[in-house]
Design a protein that fits this description.
This protein is an alpha+beta fold. It is built from nine helices and 17 strands. It has two domains: 228 residues, PmbA/TldD superfamily (PmbA/TldD fold), CATH 3.30.2290.10; 215 residues, no CATH class. It has a six-stranded antiparallel sheet. A five-stranded mixed barrel has the order 7-12-13-14-17. It has a five-stranded mixed sheet with strand order 10-9-8-11-16, with helices on one face. β2 and β3 form a beta hairpin. The radius of gyration is 24 Å and the shape is globular.
Amino acid sequence: MPSEKTLVPAANGDDLLALVELALEEARVLGATQAEAAVSVDVGLSVSVRLGEVETVEYQRDRGMGVTVYFGTRKGSASTADLGAAGLRETVAKACSIARFTAEDPCAGLADPDTLATEVPDLSLSHPWELTPEQACDLALACESAAMGVDPRITNSEGAGVSSHRGLRAYGTSHGFLAAYPGTVHSISCAVLSSEGETMERDYWYSTARDWRELEDAASVGRRSGERAVRRLGARKLSTMKVPVLYSPDVARGLVSHYIGAIRGGSQYRRASFLLDCAGQQVFPDWFALSERPHVPKALASAPFDHEGVATRDRELVAGGVALGYVLSTYSARKLGLRTTGNAGGTHNLIVQGRGRDFDAMLAHMGRGLLVTELMGQGVNGVTGDYSRGAAGFWVEDGRIAYPVHEVTVAGNLKDIYRSIVDVGSDVDLRGGIHTGSILIEEMTIAGD
């Protein structure tokens, strides 16, 4: 088994930046008018256990370089895992060869120099965990044991896992941009099965953080997964009806994700979005707000610059329910005649503003309807906005959870769903790049028996 000392990347930031500079110089020598290169090194440890036995211990060490060159408006890209000088030169040569055969694209090219980050703030994204495989296995075993001990009706396990990953990424362009920053992600998870009679239910819980000291305790993760599995026993089906629907925070982020997909530059310039040309239009209720905050310390989606070196900045995506703009890379911005928003590679810490109600208050506000805690299937059409997902959760009566529900479908159209959002709770889930509380929809179709 690898020791804890081997969980540190062999290369440091200066090493990777030197490789980037070498690739850019090689591209210049070969006649490229513009070039960009990214080098990354990632190491990690993952363990899994099941029913009290260690199943896997995996040590990962990945490294790679991607190079993109431009000859005028012709583009070529190549990648390699060989970070030696010979491998690097060969990769740049391949990218240049490809570029000579591609069609011209007037929107191709590097990000404009005036959009690039001039400073790289320390966002506290790297907190290495000196975790040995033995310690990781002990944590996973304790997590699963806590889950199995919740209730005699916990009869089986899909296992518990612990992982710790650390990475370093360097990026540079022929415009003079050159920077690198490290990051870590750690997690603990558990999934168990409960049974009663001939029925069986599954549920899970997990904790993830940049800083391992901020992870939920392993036993607590296990207990929550066990409690969630037991709580689902006795699940019933529903008849088809139209009722209010409350999405718990961990599934509510999906509604926000569908909105981001619709306002991505690619969806807009391809004319393949249910929210075409929506900037300046009312999409949500007039109290709804959605912000992007890329520089939140330790947050999972924080970044000082995007995948093109463009500076990330705070921005408002929705205010007063009105869509204020799109999510753009340099290329998609040029296709739309706009400027990049610093979102090459994705968004950075999307925050939905609620109105102060905690989860119990959200249940009481709904009164009667369906609480959704799990979604299944991929029934979302990004072009039309039609939405149909398999769901499980709980029926709510008089503002209180009455009984578990399974094998139902929640359906509607995302345009209508967004306009009929009643409230967003204060019970925010921070375990991802979208920070939202529970979301209450005024009415959706529930398809059951």
